[in-house]
Amino acid sequence: MSDRATRLVIVGAGPRAVMLVERLLARRTRSPHPHLHVTLVDPHPPGAGRIWRRDQSPLLKLNSMARDVTVFTDETCTIAGPVRSGPSLIEWAERVRAGSLPDVEIDDPDLEAELRTLRGDSFPTRRLQSVYLDWFWRRTVAIAPPGVEVHWHQGAVEWVDDTAEGYEVALADGIRLPAEIVVYALGHNGREPDGETLALIAAAADAGLTYVPPSFTADADLSALGAGDDVIVRGMGLAAVDAIVLLAEGRGGRFSRTPDGTLRYSPSGREPRLHLGSRRGVPYRSKVSSELRGDPPAREVLTPAAVAELLARPGTIDFLDDVWPLIARELVWGHYRELFTGHPERVRVSWDVFRETLREVDGDTAALRRAVAEVVPDPLDRFDVPALDVPLGDEIFADAAEVHRRIRRHIADDLHLRTAPERSTAQALFLTILSSFLALSDIPVERWSARSRAVDLPVTWHTFFSYVASGPPAHRLEEIGALADAGVVRFLGPDVAVGVAEGRFVASSPRVPGDVRAEALVDAWLPGAGAAASDNPALRELATRHGREVHVSDETFSGSLGRIDTDADGRVLARDGVAHETLFAIGPFTAGMEAGAFTRPRSNALSLRITDRVAGAVSEAVAVVSERRWAYPR
Questions:
Q1: Where is the FAD-dependent urate hydroxylase HpyO/Asp monooxygenase CreE-like FAD/NAD(P)-binding domain positioned along the sequence (predicted)?
Q2: What is the pLDDT of residues 514-563, one digit of tens each?
Q3: Within a 10 A sphere around the Cβ of 629, how many other Cβ atoms?
């Protein structure tokens, strides 16, 4: 390494970290002082990181199709940095199969078999995704311009000290890495338990029960859940689906098709009995496989003009009061545009006529339902947001068997709506909610009310978006239905509450008589935000020493977001609110709009725009440090 090289340390080496490196190196060809030394520090392999690492169960999959995964910019990206295109996951697989990527070697027969049969609409395993991300990492390093060195150090950062020349990054193995610039790209992290979780840990210990707190399912210890044990699983999102997979098929059970195409599950006898419950009482909606048949999506309600009008108002913008009604109406317009223009044989009037009806009843759910009943004969073609969000409504159930049958029927209906080619309104709904998500990024974070920033956006909206648009692959819900038919899974109903009584965990729904008692409980969701309480010492130190958690306060709410405060370009804000010139952070632990890491191709993805913007700011910092080094060499 040249004595004049600027030293950049990136804390983390997962997808976002490597994507940042790619964006940074794409700019280096313009630098008059190209000498740069980049070190990524992570216990897990670069590219994949912890979440997507190869060393995990082959049963765990992405909830995105292979054609919908990329780490590369493309011609749709509105970014300042150079566009450097590359293959999506399916395009990469096709090139590997064709022999045009000789730097990809797969020595695992299962992975090789998966790659040979991968299609654009396949849901790849996380292990295959790790191979794609590993190739992306090696490609990024291989095409680094002259004077740039990029390395991975396998280890964990514990803290970062200030020095006269910048920073010293302290690793758990005792190594100290000097740096002029540090970027935290830590991805998702756990946190120390608090509140109800802490109370359940204590109660379980006192009663000799088994409790699995919120965690990343691939890292959770499920070994204590024995064959035939009754286990309450609270949560019905992606983490719950992963847990079900590991506790059923992962224990040796097998799925098969009957002659009429019905999926059946043959237990191994090693499975526990899983009692599933959540607030809604139903799983997240499955991913959509239909294609649009009608007019292309277009924002009719949450338009750029509507956003501009909100921004022109004085004061803060409240998500629930000001924006959510626009999103809800937009979803209705998106659904019915596709139904009336793509399937005119299933409605009694034209789209032009129904548009006028929509304008009259827009925002009035009762009036909408009455109007729709007159012109849309099939109940499965009818749509409104409350029915989407709370599919069980206010139903009261006679007993556990009735609620189980009702949820089983809901899963079957959802699968039909999301996978049948003739039900393309589900695809329109997906594209509409995705467009709404992107529209929110046009509202600066500082304009939101405190309650919106702390609760409504990261919890209420994010959970609803995930429930509608980021659920499991359809075959996972079909498998849950088969597990329910086999008696391995039982459904508890909505608004499930869990406590400890008489030495057992007790789960109950206020709308179902009786309760379920078990000696084990799994809280199947990811740990909440909490940088200062993180189980990652580097993030804890960042939150309490170099930076701060975002605190918001107004007449509606006061509290911490649990996320690191940065400016729009990723610079960490110090305790006094001043932005560090050479300390950056990017990822879900920061307070900006979270958009994941890899994304859909040709969608002008928010994640790529954010990563490119932060890379631009890091490049500017590198340029300043480099000029200083060349002017005053050591």
A1: 9-188
A2: 999 999 999 999 988 899 999 999 999 999 999 999 999 998 899 999 99
A3: 20
Given this model, what pLDDT does residue 1 score? Answer: 57
Query: Per residue in 431-440, pLDDT tens?
Result: 999 999 999 9
With CA atoms as reference, report the closest residue to 469 among 61, 52, 63, 62.
Answer: 63
Question: Residue 632's pLDDT is what?
Answer: 63
Q: With the CA atoms of 483, 486, 488 and 491 taken in that order, what torsion angle do they form, in degrees rounded to the nearest 10?
A: 70
Judge contact between 353 and 435, C-beta under 8 A. Answer: no
* Interatomic CA distance for residues 76 and 100, integer angstroms: 26
What's the 3-state SS for 303-371? Answer: CHHHHHHHHHCCCCECHHHHHHHHHHHHHHHHHHHHHHHHCHHHCCCCHHHHHHHHHHHCCCHHHHHHH
b/e string for 533-568 if b means 16 or more Cβ within 10 A?
A: bbebebbbbbbeebbbbbebeeebeeebbbbbbbee
Q: How far apart are CA 276 and CA 231, in angstroms?
A: 9
> To which residue do tokens 């009719």 refer?
300
The stretch 24-32 carries a mean pLDDT of: 78
**Contact status, residue 3 vs residue 126, Cβ threshold 8 Å:** no
The CA distance from 140 to 22, in Å, is 6
Rounded CA separation 187/353 (Å): 49
pLDDT at 33: 63
CA atoms within 13 A on the CB side of 27: 22
Q: 517, 504 in Cβ contact below 8 A?
A: yes
Residue 48, both tokens: 């994949």
pLDDT tens digit sequence for 282-335: 999 999 999 999 999 999 999 999 999 999 999 999 999 999 999 999 999 999
> How does pLDDT run across 388-445, given as a tens digit for each residue?
999 999 999 999 999 999 999 999 999 999 999 999 999 999 999 999 999 999 999 9
User: Which tokens belong to 220?
Assistant: 């959770």
Handedness of CA 409, 415, 416, 418 (dihedral sign): positive
Q: What percent of the chain has pLDDT over 90?
A: 91
Q: Is 491 helix (H, G, I), strand (E, B) or coil?
A: strand
pLDDT at 595: 72
Buried b (16+ CB within 10 A) or exposed e, 399-424: ebeebbebbeebbeebbebbbeeebb
**pLDDT tens per residue across span 172-211:** 999 999 999 999 999 999 999 988 999 999 999 999 999 9
* Distance of alpha carbon 248 from alpha carbon 475, whole angstroms: 15
Look-up of token digits 């009310």: 449
d(CA 372, CA 518): 45
Q: Quote the distance between the C-alpha of residue 592 and its chain's center.
A: 15
DSSP secondary structure letter of residue 119: -
The structure tokens listed for 14 are 């997962």
SS (H, E, C) 178-242: EECEEEECCCCCCECCCHHHHHHHHHHHHHCCEEECCCCHHHCCCCCCCCCCEEEEECCCHHHHH
Question: Exposure of 435 by Cβ count < 10 A (0-12 exposed, 13-18 middle, 19+ buried)?
Answer: middle
Helix 126-142 with 89-98: angle, nearest 10 deg: 80
